[in-house]
Amino acid sequence: MPANGGRPGMTLELLGVGRRLANELGESLSVLVLGDSLTEAEGRDLIAHGADKVYIINDPMLSTYHPDTFAAATEQALRRLQPNIFLMGRSEIGQDVAPMVGFRLKTGLAMDCLDLQVDPATKKLIMIRPVYGGNARAHFMCTDFSPQMATVRPKTQDPAPRQEGRQGSVEFIDVALDPSVKRSDWVAYERWESTGGVSLASAEIVVSGGRGIGSTDAYQQTIEGAAGVLGGAAGASKACCDAGYAPPGNQVGLTGQRVSPKLYVAVAISGASQHIAGMGTSKAIVAINKDPDANIFKVARYGVVADYKQVMPSFIRKCQELVGSGE
Ligand SMILES: Cc1cc2nc3c(=O)[nH]c(=O)nc-3n(C[C@H](O)[C@H](O)[C@H](O)COP(=O)(O)OP(=O)(O)OC[C@H]3O[C@@H](n4cnc5c(N)ncnc54)[C@H](O)[C@@H]3O)c2cc1C
Fold first, then answer.
1. Which of 20, 43, 134, 282 could form a disulfide with 130 if both were Cys (CB 3.0 to 4.6 A apart)?
2. Domain chopping of the chain, boundaries
3. What residue owns the CA closest to ligand 1's atom 50?
């Protein structure tokens, strides 16, 4: 039973992993969606992407996101539907709501899973998530509680393909949301815009700069410049953000954003474990660093030992040529 918590791409990834697990377990796959004016057609679209049942909750209190109302609606639905497994995306909403729901249902929850499998002996869910700052992966099982709950890291699962003609049911369910119950409230909302127009979380290509970039001008020219040419997002190490070269919202790592793009280009980044915790699952990593012993080369598929100032201008020029020629 997946719910994405705000990202359309994540919904398809949850449907992909949910369908696989449901097939392995011989169970049906349900989707729970929350909103204020969702239609049956939107539910049918999820069925075309692999769901067997779609449960829709429409309520005016769900028109904008609030942790209390989303958690209360999800909790009430789960108490009624009694799923064996409940998955959410590790989006901003998923990170908020999943722990609240897990606590209220008195069940276990594994956050930020990189993979989910079924234990052949017990048919329980094996939830695989990074530990020790991303240096190891731990396998968790929720043996005694129900539902088994996990949030899934974006871009770690194959999205479910659309299949015309799939059959399934769409059901609208009611919940009782009490506007007077507020355990939390917004104090302030500060959006950290990722520069370059493409969001870090959903970018297929991320170009990140480290402290070795040396200045804000260099970051804008080299890192944002390369990201812009490639249609990707600009990222940064914590040291680069702390130095004021990059905006704080661009930070990638343990205490920043976690990304899994197809291509991650690390420029003048040493490769501290806390940085790798946020980008180590990228499909291909290219590192440019003048220190041949830099740790980043241990996770890089391609490495260039050089001063970035010599490499990056020709890299950006070549990318511009290739993008211009449509290759
Ligand atoms: C609790 C905690 C949480 C943290 N969370 C994060 C996090 O989320 N994200 C994160 O990134 N860090 C995090 N850190 C910080 C982390 O430990 C490192 O300090 C940080 O990642 C280092 O950033 P850096 O590689 O840019 O800088 P440095 O370690 O200073 O490395 C700079 C690199 O640039 C190279 N370089 C310099 N000049 C050039 C040049 N001209 N051309 C090519 N290469 C050059 C150098 O050889 C060096 O390898 C955290 C630390 C702690 C304790």
1. 134
2. 2-172, 205-325
3. 274
Q: Please indicate whether residue 291, judged by its CB atom, sits closer than 6 Å to ligand 1.
A: yes
Of 179 and 193, more confident? 179
Cα angle: 157, vertex 162, 163; to 5 degrees: 125
253 Cβ below 6 A of ligand 1: yes
Q: How far apart are CA 238 and CA 253, in angstroms?
A: 8
pLDDT digits (tens, 9 = 90+) for 221-272: 999 999 999 999 999 999 999 999 999 989 999 889 889 999 999 999 999 9
- The length of the chain, given as a count of residues: 327
CA–CA gap between residue 48 and residue 152 (Å, rounded): 21
pLDDT at 132: 80
Q: What is the pLDDT of residue 179?
A: 80
| Residue (of 212, 211, 209, 207) closest to 196 by Cα position | 207
Architecture of domain 205-325 in this structure: 3-Layer(aba) Sandwich (3.40)
Whole-model pTM? 0.74
3-state secondary structure of 245: coil
Answer whether 86's CB lies under 8 Å from 110's CB.
no
Task: Check if 239 has its Cβ closer than 6 Å to any atom of ligand 1.
Answer: yes
Contact 44, 69 (CB under 8 A): no
From 43, 8, 57, 15, select the one nearest 199 (Cα to Cα): 8
State the fold for domain 2-172. Answer: Rossmann fold (3.40.50)
46 lines ligand 1 (CB under 6 A): no
Query: How far is it, in rounded angstroms, from Cα 218 to Cα 316?
Result: 13
Percent of the chain residues past pLDDT 90, beyond the cut: 77
Q: Measured between alpha carbons, how far is 256 from 278 in angstroms, rounded to an integer?
A: 7
Tokens of 239: 């040291």
Type and span of the H or E element at 136: strand 136-141
> What span, in angstroms and rounded, lies between the C-alpha atoms of 280 and 287?
12
Q: In the chain, what is the straight-line distance between the N-terminal and C-terminal CA atoms, in Å?
A: 40
Q: Give me ligand 1 centre to Cα 321, in Å.
A: 31
Q: Which residues partner with 32 through β-bridges?
A: 55
Residue with tokens 């997002």: 233
